[in-house]
């Protein structure tokens, strides 16, 4: 039994010596890369910082001008058709060819609040791929002169948007002279 213990002790010593010799021989050696792989270093894309909230708010406010380009006579049924589109498009919009998919009610909004809400609403409609929407601007019955304050502004703001193809006064059951039905570009 004593011989076996001596052999196992001497065997483990030999293993330790072999390991030490191997480590000494391999000192400073680096492993080779795989022969079948190529490592490409790709440049990182540039970081684009998000605009601050107040910058985004300014962009929304500045995106639509208050310059009045469309003349709308009091009491007239008003409409708009983007140049180059067939009059049939406007006729279909007036007759309810497209189902109204969403609406925005601007009663009680100030001019600036209405502009911001309209931009946000139209952007959301584009994301949801809505084709026909309605904006209720009111008839102006509670304003000082009993004139619609937002009606002309809404029409001019809509005419400035590239995604608005046409709009017209809503049918009586959809709000009549206090609302507008809008046809948006399809995506």
Please summarize what this structure is:
This protein is α+β, with helices and mostly antiparallel strands. Helices cover 39% and strands 13% of the residues.
Give an overview of the whole structure.
The chain is α+β, with helices and mostly antiparallel strands and 187 residues long. It has one domain (53-184): Ribosomal Protein S8, Chain: A, domain 1 (2-Layer Sandwich). Helix content is 39%, strand content 13%. The protein has a five-stranded mixed β-sheet with strand order 1-4-5-3-2, sandwiched between helices. Helix 4 links the parallel strand 2 (102-105) and strand 3 (132-136). The relative contact order is 0.14.
Give the key terms.
alpha+beta, single chain, Ribosomal Protein S8, Chain: A, domain 1, 13% strand, five-stranded mixed beta sheet, 187 residues, rod-shaped
Helix content: 25-40%
CATH class type: Alpha Beta
Separate helix tally: 5
Radius of gyration: 36 Å
Q: What characterizes the major β-sheet?
A: 5 strands, mixed
Assign an overall shape.
Answer: rod-shaped
Give the tally of β-strands.
Answer: 5
Termini distance?
89 Å
Structural class computed from helices and strand pairing: alpha+beta
**What is the averaged pLDDT score?**
78
Write the topology of this structure.
Layout: H1 2-26, H2 53-63, E1 79-81, H3 87-95, E2 102-105, H4 111-127, E3 132-136, H5 150-160, E4 164-169, E5 179-184
Parallel strand pairs: 2-3
Antiparallel strand pairs: 1-4, 3-5, 4-5
Helix pairs in contact: 2-4, 4-5
